[in-house]
Amino acid sequence: MVEQTIEETRKKTQEARDKEDRRNNIVLFHVPECAPGSYEEIIKHDCDYFLDLCNEALALELTREDVKRIQRLG
After folding, report:
1. For residue 29, which of 1, 56, 53 has the smallest C-alpha distance?
2. For residue range 9-36, what is the model confidence (pLDDT) as tens digits?
3. Phi, psi for 60 (deg, rounded to 5)
4. C-alpha distance across the termini of the chain, in Å
5. What is the CA angle 65-69-72, rounded to 5?
6. With left for phi above 0 and alpha for psi between -120 and 50, is residue 59 left, alpha or beta?
7. Exposed, middle or buried, 70 (CB in 10 Å: 0-12/13-18/19+)?
8. Which residues are CB-contacts of 28 (< 8 A; sequence separation ≥ 6)?
9. Fewest CB atoms less than 10 Å from the CB: which of 24, 32, 60, 70?
């Protein structure tokens, strides 16, 4: 009984940790590509594009610290 409770608690903790890790992740579709460069330059371009979009089009005041991870698809 105790082992079952411990295992359930461990699973709930892992699920909560996974949810928190994905909380501020952004997936971008159909973003204009930047000039070829390093991985860091491409990620910076995508992040800047996303932040400009949020700030101008949606009137949201987001900063780079608000975004944990950005990934481009397509």
Report:
1. 53
2. 999 999 998 888 887 788 888 888 888 8
3. -100, 140
4. 49
5. 130
6. left
7. buried
8. 46, 49, 50, 70, 71, 72, 73
9. 32
Q: Fill in the DSSP letter of residue 28.
A: E
Write down the pTM of the prediction.
Answer: 0.63
Asked if 64 contacts 47 with a C-beta cutoff of 8 angstroms, the reply is yes
Residue 22 falls in which region: left (phi positive, over 0), alpha (psi -120 to 50) or beta: alpha
- Delimit the domains of the chain by residue range: 25-74
What type of residue is 62? L
Q: Which two tokens stand for residue 66?
A: 């608000």
